[in-house]
Design a protein that fits this description.
Blueprint: E1 3-7, H1 12-23, E2 27-32, H2 35-45, E3 50-54, H3 60-74, E4 79-82, H4 100-128, E5 131-135, H5 148-166, E6 173-179, H6 198-209, E7 219-222
Helix pairs in contact: 1-6, 3-4, 4-5
Length: 231
């Protein structure tokens, strides 16, 4: 049974991917700071196929411990979904949104967290000739006035391409999944646009993971029907 490690696994896309992956025969290592939510998900999925590993994705030691713990529990790490992320509203003109002190956590989680997740996991993925999947965003493909979240996802877009280039010759595959608007805690206030379900993105992740080892699905952009490219 292949092993999938997921950051940001306690809710949303991470939890939905964990549920679908176990249904398709994966064992899963679930990483998040919310230990109560992780425990409930492990109970739902079954302790024989899921393990909770409390982890702060902005702490490299925490991530390396999680990779080691996953290999110790299941024997390998065959795939990693670097999914942890957050969003706060921003304005560079100061016309609303979160204060700059709150921006730091978003940048650290979305950019640094994704980067050190890759750094911590790639030695294990090289050993297994595995697969790294990063959760980007449709927001990382267009201009959003005053939107720092969009800029962090632009960074993830470039990061995925750079990681893929460095992994040539290792057998590791790298996929960037770019969701449009998804019904999650981060988008609860957006009632003006159509939204995907977290399960829709999970199916995209499992599609990429399910390809033959000679096929590298570089990017997937998934939007709900009716969403404009830049909405």
């Amino acid at each position: 049974m292949p092993v999938l490690m997921i950051t940001g696994a306690s809710r949303g896309i991470g939890a939905a991917t964990a549920r679908l992956a176990t249904a398709e025969g994966y064992r899963v290592a679930l990483l998040a700071r919310d230990t109560d939510a992780l425990s409930g998900l492990v109970e739902e999925l079954g302790p024989e196929t899921a393990v909770a590993l409390p982890c702060d994705v902005t702490d490299y030691a925490s991530l390396t411990d999680a990779v080691t713990g996953t290999e110790r529990r299941f024997g390998s790490v065959d795939a990693v979904l670097a999914n942890a992320g957050m969003s706060v509203p921003t304005s560079f003109l100061g016309s609303g949104g979160a204060e700059p002190e709150q921006w730091r956590d978003m940048v650290l989680t979305n950019v640094y967290g994704a980067a050190i997740t890759a750094r911590a996991a790639l030695p294990a993925l090289v050993r297994s000739r595995g697969h790294l999947v990063l959760t980007g965003s449709n927001a990382g493909r267009g201009i959003r006035p005053g939107n720092l979240y969009s800029a962090t996802k632009w960074a993830v877009t470039g990061m995925a391409q750079n990681i893929r280039a460095e992994c040539v010759g290792t057998g590791v595959r790298v996929t960037l999944v770019q969701p449009g608007m998804v019904e999650t805690d981060m988008t609860a206030d957006r009632t003006d646009v159509p939204k995907l379900r977290a399960e829709d993105i999970a199916r995209g992740v499992l599609y990429a993971l399910g390809q033959p080892e000679t096929v590298d699905v570089n990017e997937l952009t998934i939007r709900p029907v009716g969403q404009a490219a830049q909405s």
